[in-house]
Predict the structure.
Amino acid sequence: MPDMPHALYIVHLEIDPAAESAWESWMFSHHVPEVVKLGSFLRARRLRDEARAPDGWHRWTLIYEAASRAVIDGYLTGPHLPRIRQEHTERFGATTRISRQILVEAGEPIRGEVEA
């Protein structure tokens, strides 16, 4: 199996610093584990950008790893998605900005050696 899954569902978020602590607590103890379970994702990774948005909001990226594009399609068309998104919107809609993307592997990993 390749080092990287065949497809990634990526969520980019910007969070108002005043809400970040509450968002982070809820997001990583409740929301992300639920998405992984319901979406049949292999795992999720979270990354915090060291640079802030121009208005000072913090930037985060969540990467959900899937064995195939079909797994992501199943999650996006499943009956649970509206509820999951609505719950986030009700809690943090005014204090977050969200964009999403799907990346699909385009070939085998490229490996290289560092020349001395």
